[in-house]
Amino acid sequence: MTTTNNDKPVWFITGCSTGFGRELASHVLELGYRTVVTARDPDAIKDLAELGDALVLKLDVTDHVQAEAAIKAAEDAFGHIDVLVNNAGIGYFAAVEESEEDEVRKMFDVNFFGLCRMIHVALPTMRKRRKGFIVNLSSIAGLTGLPSLGYYNATKFAVEGLSDALWQEVEPLGIKVMVVEPSGFRTDWAGRSANESQHVIDDYAKTAGKWRKNIRAISGKQSGDPLRAVHAIVQAVNSDNPPHHLLLGNDAFEGAKAKLASLQKEFAAWETVTRGADFPKD
User: Fold this and answer.
1) Which of 17, 99, 138, 139 is catalytic?
2) Residues 33, 92, 151, 152: which is the catalytic one?
3) What is the tally of structural domains in the chain?
4) What are the GO MF terms of this UniProt record (predicted)?
């Protein structure tokens, strides 16, 4: 259902059928926010319309026509979009050499190019209003690589790089950008939303193979609480000074610190060689 409650912000969320998307949509609706709830199968999310001022739309982020139609429908219903949350995503387990090109391309089309599509069609109105907030769901895997997730890492590293450039371009126009980097949370990402390669190479059994089995095994037992995570996202969006990077979960925080420490150590060890690559100063 939709109303004309114009004093509440408008949130547009992709990938609401499960996981963070569903939890976030439920939370912001309960807060009274006007919310555009989207999924490839709208029947899977129609129950969310009962929670508040919701517009339920069919949206496959890999389909440019659907992306444009969904943004237009949201703007027609609510006048504008205050917060775009690019949550839709899939996973894929495989060593780099084991990975199947069609699966990798499908994952990039959802995780990266689908996210880009939504940004491209939402930005024009945000620019005109000189107001808006773009939230891109990345992962701790967008900051540090993990065996068996090489190409998933690549999609999330791409989201990180795009977002870092984007905020520098649009913040002078009044538009905020935040990347969310969770560690393991009790969603069905590892159990249902991530395929794996059928091409298994024995040489990777103790690296990629072991990691893949371990991640599958803890699905549903991760330390991260999705409800606390979506509360944190809303808190950050509503803050006076939102971060460009929002880590979620102790494992994300410790993993990011370890990555920074490793980089600093390696940079320092090779500083002389690094600095020696420039032309000599006169």
Assistant:
1) 138
2) 152
3) 1
4) oxidoreductase activity
